[in-house]
């Protein structure tokens, strides 16, 4: 499952999202999500920007390890 953490550095919040091969995540771009940085669908009610969806495609080595 995707993991995320947020830290403050030089007065700015910086969020890290870690994905594993085969995982997919939708990241919030409207800043209204209660699950930020993950999209919870709130953009449909009051936002103008939908999420950005990212998927990590497993490489051949990853596929061999799971076979
Ligand atoms: S809740 Fe912000 S983009 Fe979906």
UniProtKB/TrEMBL annotation:
GO molecular function: 2 iron, 2 sulfur cluster binding; metal ion binding
Keyword Transferase included in the entry's annotation: no
Alphabetized InterPro entries for the sequence: FeS-contain_CDGSH-typ (IPR018967), MitoNEET_CISD (IPR042216)
Keywords: 2Fe-2S, Iron, Iron-sulfur, Metal-binding
Pfam families linked to this entry: zf-CDGSH
Limits of the Iron-binding zinc finger CDGSH type domain: 14-49
Cellular component, GO annotation: cytoplasm
Keyword Endoplasmic reticulum: no
Descriptive protein name: Iron-binding zinc finger CDGSH type domain-containing protein
Organism: Ornatilinea apprima
Lineage, broadest ranks: Bacteria, Bacillati, Chloroflexota, Anaerolineae, Anaerolineales
């Amino acid at each position: 499952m995707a993991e995320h953490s947020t830290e403050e550095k030089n007065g700015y919040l910086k969020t890290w999202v870690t994905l594993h091969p085969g995982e997919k995540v939708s990241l919030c771009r409207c800043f209204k999500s209660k699950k930020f940085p993950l999209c919870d669908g709130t953009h449909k009610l009051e936002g103008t920007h939908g999420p950005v969806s990212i998927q990590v495609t497993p490489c051949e080595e990853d596929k061999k390890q799971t076979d």
